[in-house]
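User: I need a structural model of Pyrroline-5-carboxylate reductase from Pseudomonas helleri for a docking pre-check later this week. Nothing fancy, just the predicted structure tokens so I can convert them on my end. Input:
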Amino acid sequence: MSKTRIAFIGAGNMASSLIGGLLAKGFGTSQICASAPSPETRAKVAAEHGIEAFADNAQAVKDADVIVLSVKPKLMKDVCQTLRASLTPGQLIISVAAGITCSSLRNWVGEQPVVRCMPNTPSLVGKGASGLYATADVTAEQRQQAEQLLSAVGIALWVDEEVQLDAVTAVSGSGPAYFFLLIEAMTAAGVKLGLTREMAETLAEHTALGAAQIAIDSDDDAAELRRRVASPGGTTEAAIKSFQADGFAATVEKALSAAAHRSAELAEQLGQ
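Assistant: Understood. Predicted structure tokens for Pyrroline-5-carboxylate reductase:
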């Protein structure tokens, strides 16, 4: 990707994080540009990253190898249809907008190679988890370009079927909110048990961070790691048994199924 030129259409938080990640990986500022309708947004991204920012999308995509669509899903159709006349055959289109299918994107931009991505908010701090899907005409080199782009802010994993991005949305796209909910609940419970809110929240946050790091670093699965912590007759086992008695696993499965179903519904609505 050393000579690849990348244009970001939209320069909000996700685009800014990707740009920062690419620059940290050795990209030059001359290889990256962005466009945004807001003068304030253009000034911010230019000042923060030292790249050129345009008001005109057509000017941004000129000579670009990769075009990253980073606009709100509700704006995507208008942006793509307006941009279509400025594209040249073979330019890779990467969409980081939730719920917009490859079919819809190709209807709007023409028969360009498309990679659809589902990043999540931890990408903003370089700890993202993204799912990617490529149309059949995406070359091996372009797949590598897309993977390296998303890997600049975390991990990037390919799915074989586009419908699997609904599951990615349920697990990782929406996933950070589940952990925030658990931290919120643990904090409230800690306060009821006699801790200050600040102490309970800090303990819950750092416990979540440490547990995730252990899971990432270990060769064992989460079930085995849980068993090691839950000594027979101990405090952890008492809590786990309470969770299980209340149908914890079934509750999580039901919640993720609801998220995946809603992801599919939104794709249908937004693609019209």
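Before docking, keep this in mind: The longest strand covers residues 128-134.
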